[in-house]
Amino acid sequence: MQVGVRISGNTFMPGMETTFTENVSSRGARVRSVRRWRPGESVCVMSLADGFRSLGRVAYCQASRDAGFVIGVEFLELEGQWVLGSRKSPNGA
To answer: What is the pTM of this model?
Structure first.
């Protein structure tokens, strides 16, 4: 699921980046980035849509097919919750 986020904490290119997740869970997210990140590096993730914010750790960084990178973020300290809306199963339940 795509969620708009701001990420910061990159050692090589400091500053905040506005981007999207590719998927999210209660424990982490896969996030697009224009920057290369190092595994183990600290990252702050803030949702653009709600009060969710988390300090996290970069689990991996991979080159993306569409240019840039995708990073796996493990959430360490959570503040707020993802507001993802309701999902219905294909059978309507």
So the answer is: 0.82
